[in-house]
Amino acid sequence: MLLENMKSPDDLKHLTISQLQQLSEEIRRFLIENLSKTGGHLAPNLGVVELTIALHYCFNSPKDKILWDVGHQAYVHKILTGRKDDFPTLRQYKGLCGFPKMAESAHDVWETGHSSTSLSGAMGMASARDLKKENYHVIGVIGDGALTGGMAFEALNHIGHEKKNVIVVLNDNEMSIAPNVGAMHNYLGKLRTDHIYNRAKDEVESLLKAIPAVGGKLAQLAEKVKDSMKYMLVSGILFEELGFTYIGPIDGHNLELVIDSLRTAANTRGPVLLHVITKKGKGYLPAEQNAMKWHGTDTYKIESGEMIKAVAAAPAYKSVFADTLIKLTQQDDRIVAITPAMPDGSGLLKYASVYPERMFDVGIAEQHACTFAAGLATQGMKPFLAIYSTFLQRAYDQLIHDVARMKLPVVFAVDRAGLVGADGETHQGVYDIAFMRAIPNMVIMAPKDENEMQHMMKTAAEYDGPISFRYPRGNGLGVKMDEELKALPIGQMEVVREGKGVAVLSFGHIYDVAEKAINLLQMDGIMPMFVNARFCKPLDEELLLRLAKENMDIVTVEEGCVQGGFGSAVMEFYAEQGYHNMVVEPMGIPDYFVEHGSVKEQRQEISLTAEAIAARVRSLLPVNKQRA
Ligand SMILES: Cc1ncc(C[n+]2csc(CCOP(=O)(O)OP(=O)(O)O)c2C)c(N)n1
Ligand SMILES: CC(=O)[C@@H](O)[C@H](O)COP(=O)(O)O
Ligand SMILES: [Mg+2]
């Protein structure tokens, strides 16, 4: 077993090619066995075993900087950089992060989680290196999916213009999470099938130059001819024209070839793009056969490939979203659906099976997705943009400038809102309430459960302006689903239970935690008022004024950042109305990045639990307030 002796990338350097090949098989086996117990991003990592070994074999991390785009495929990098023994804790609370993490290792020179940032980071590092007159390689490893992200093109443009010594390794497995989309994907497909390599160009040149006497003249002519021939002979012309030396496409599982190609890249001046063809899920048949399903997995049985996950009693929010959107589209042919590269995660694959011409997967292009929706809305369509809260952050200016300012009727279905669990701090969907609330003309909703979500979707479908509703990763509460969808009155909260002294205002799916707190209090004879807020913008001013007049103290609860969130909105309201003695205690996500773990553990850590909410209410009871 070679793997057990791998403590650092230096341990690779003396291995032979056949030993490296043996190591790649050991790492594959390690991934399959360990992730069967922890879950994680199996298919992406199985696809980059040889590539990662070759990178650490050819370069000297961390002096040479290796950046992993998205970073979900950095497990092999972590195994080779001394962290294989931590894999039983992968993506668990206080355990190994599923993405590169500087605090874990000096070899993690760049943190990722969101797509398409590696090349910008690489350009920054290369520019710093050159300004400081230092000498090391900078290598950005980016997938074909991540290359559909606009930031990647911005970086390619800059790197090519500055002719920086940066190596871009394009890991092309034809997959994003789902099969990749877009014209760039089609272009890469052409390159994959082209068997004309870079060498052809050089051969032609040396041939012409070898012709005695006229050879020199011809070679000059050839320069011109070459440029036109380049379009025929040289694959990768798009990258060549951007100032890159294009190498490839090469078989990314052929260790020797990858090593040779990386060495060629390392010895090539200026920007280089090495196009590597890999298979997502390589070496584990179930993952090879369905790379989308095995992109991110739960625990599974290795032999059968059967996923081991508790059968949920309640429907997944993404399924309720898709089913309801199908229902709404049957009644409203203005409706279309958009996803930025998350057709499966958003549930829209199901919608597309019914309305293929109405579902748009635009690739990892959240900014485009948002403004594309705006364009559709100007022409009378009713776009539902299904977008993870954390990825909506990418489209903030488009939300403001292209949708809200023009008051366009775009619906933002903000999925994975709140704490998301194992993906951790880069994926927590906890800022959307605050960043959307600041935008004029926005209506902001959040359902307490999956049944209310379908009514909010009806509300959104009928509302003539920019509107959003947020919902969490995972499953609903298993509540009864109303047959008939009814639009809610905009801005109206729901008084679940009348009460005295203290009012608990819960916004969104944290409702079931708040409800448990109310039940705990009731067991002690404490009867606060309980409100399902439903709307963060506009607020239910009538109800808030009533609470002020009844001298209620208020506890607000949201699975979103306290700063600028729903609780802030309530506090601002009372300040504006001149109620300067109102007690409003906001509970939500505190001012730090919540790391990976289960949602339960994350809520415990930040005291967003039934017990904590109940304690906060108790602290406001007159008997306790006097003591304070
Ligand atoms: C900004 C952003 N949007 C969407 C995602 C979700 N996401 C994670 S991995 C992935 C596909 C990446 O495809 P690729 O870069 O080709 O890597 P592969 O998994 O094929 O190795 C997507 C869409 C993300 N991480 N960041
Ligand atoms: C790495 C990445 O960004 C995606 O794979 C993400 O982890 C998907 O999240 P869900 O599992 O919530 O769809
Ligand atoms: Mg890919």
UniProtKB/TrEMBL annotation:
Sequence similarity: Belongs to the transketolase family. DXPS subfamily.
Subunit record text: Homodimer.
Organism taxonomic ancestry: Bacteria, Bacillati, Bacillota, Bacilli, Bacillales
Residue ranges of every copy of the Transketolase-like pyrimidine-binding domain listed in the record: 315-479
Pfam families the record matches: DXP_synthase_N, Transket_pyr, Transketolase_C
A GO term for molecular function: 1-deoxy-D-xylulose-5-phosphate synthase activity
Family annotation (InterPro entries): Dxylulose-5-P_synthase, THDP-binding, Transketo_C/PFOR_II, Transketolase-like_Pyr-bd, Transketolase_BS, Transketolase_C, Transketolase_CS
Primary gene name: dxs
Cofactor: record remark: Binds 1 Mg(2+) ion per subunit. Binds 1 thiamine pyrophosphate per subunit.
Protein name: 1-deoxy-D-xylulose-5-phosphate synthase
